[in-house]
Amino acid sequence: MTTISPERIRQIEARLDELSAQMATGDLPSDRFVAVSKEYAELEPVARAAAEVRRLRQEAESLAYMAGDGDEELRALAAEELHANKVALEAADRALALALLPRDAADERAAMLEIRAGTGGDEAALFAGDLFRMYQRYAEARGWRVELISASSSDAGGYKEVVASVTGSGVFARLKFESGVHRVQRVPATEAGGRIHTSAATVAVLPEAEEVDVRIEDKDLRIDVYRSSGPGGQSVNTTDSAVRITHLPTGLVVIQQDEKSQHKNKAKALKVLRTRLYEAERERLANERSGTRRAMVGSGDRSERIRTYNFPQGRVTDHRINLTLHRLPEILVGEMDELIGALVAQDEAERLAALDG
After folding, report:
1. How far, in Å, CA of 33 to CA of 145, rounded?
2. Alpha-carbon distances, residue 267 vs 242, 263, 270, 322 (angstroms)
3. Whole-number Cα distances in Å, 55 to 60, 75, 89, 101
4. Cβ-based burial of 291 (10 A; exposed 0-12, middle 13-18, buried ≥19)
5. What span, in angstroms and rounded, lies between the C-alpha atoms of 179 and 203?
6. What is the spatial distance between Cα 180 and Cα 202, in angstroms, rounded to a whole number?
7. pLDDT one digit per residue (tens) for the chain, 357 residues
8. Residue 235 has what DSSP assignment?
């Protein structure tokens, strides 16, 4: 377990008292009050965890004294409670270490979810649709909101590509491990011979950017408008409502045509562009900080095969943590907490180990 400096805890507790006093005055400007409240909310769990560790250590000292003194019955009782205290103290020490870990600043943000069919033709598009519904149901179960940004349907059903915004509490923290290649093994409905096919879809989860995060100059944009078209080239509507935005400094292109309003399409396209620029900057900073080293769980590499959904055997395997769950039907209807919880736990263990190293 990571050794935690008592001086560091004292500094955090002193800062917490300072912030509490500032909020109690009632005369902070609104923007300053928001900043102080946010810092207080980040530090308070650390102080609470530290207080629990102190309490258990004091209790351990009392129990150790009782276990070595007094009558036999009292010593036996104290020894039993001392064992329970040791287990609780180990858990409290870990909770404190986790509370002190540097947080990903994007964890509480909404996320842009992008799913694209990969190898496998129509079957890959059907699988992309399955994945999108899986995330929709998971979001519903957690009280999150899913807003469709754009979708390109395939002729056989499913999606060639689908992009959605997911908003709610702690969205990115839970979904960020989903980025990568998802592979499916099953017998397609169109397969007369009953042979198992392997197809794939790529998932990307990006933290959504606010306007204050990414400043986009009008001079850096080329905006083209044209008539929306659907499958086969037919016109979806009779006005020039589709929008294509090109970010000239980076060459990024975003096309949006799902809405009938040019204004709404432009707003959605700018939202996607802002999020992609924000993610590119996050990746650049992360690479600067960590060099070429990437965490096993949190690499977010979209070319990396991360998970296999095997229908004949009813199992899901996450290759990053060597976890296999024989609960494929349940996972596909959004029961993903066990899977995502294991990824979060592995990420925490990796980061704790890195601090020890």
Report:
1. 28
2. 12, 6, 5, 41
3. 9, 21, 9, 22
4. exposed
5. 5
6. 6
7. 556 678 888 888 888 888 888 888 878 888 788 888 877 887 888 888 888 888 999 888 888 888 877 678 888 888 888 889 899 988 888 888 877 777 777 778 889 999 999 988 889 999 999 999 999 999 999 999 999 998 888 888 889 999 999 999 889 989 999 999 999 999 887 676 778 889 999 999 998 877 666 788 888 889 888 876 654 444 445 567 889 999 988 888 998 888 888 888 988 988 889 888 888 888 777 666 554 334 434 444 456 789 999 999 999 999 999 999 999 999 999 999 999 999 988 888 887 777 665
8. B
Find the farthest-apart pair of alpha carbons in the chain and give their distance in angstroms, rounded.
92
Is residue 89 within 8 A of residue 56, CB to CB? The reply is yes
CA distance readout (Å), 187 to 91, 125, 127, 158, 333: 46, 14, 12, 16, 19
Token pair 């042979």 is at which residue?
195
Specify the residue for token string 């979001």.
Answer: 139
- Region at 121 (left for phi over 0; alpha for psi -120 to 50; beta for the rest): left
Q: Which residues contact 233 (CB under 8 A, 6 or more apart)?
A: none
Per DSSP bridges, beta strands 305-310 and 180-186 are parallel
Closest CA to 350 of 277, 294, 290: 294
pTM for this structure?
Answer: 0.70
Which three-class secondary structure string do you get for 130-187?
HHHHHHHHHHHHCCCEEEEEEEEECCCCCEEEEEEEEECCCHHHHHHHHCEEEEEEEC
Q: Are strands 315-318 and 197-207 parallel, antiparallel or unpaired?
A: unpaired
The CA distance from 141 to 304, in Å, is 28
C-alpha span between 46 and 99 (Å, rounded): 5
Structure tokens given for 257: 């045509």
What's the CA angle centered on 240, arms 224 and 117, to 5 degrees? 70
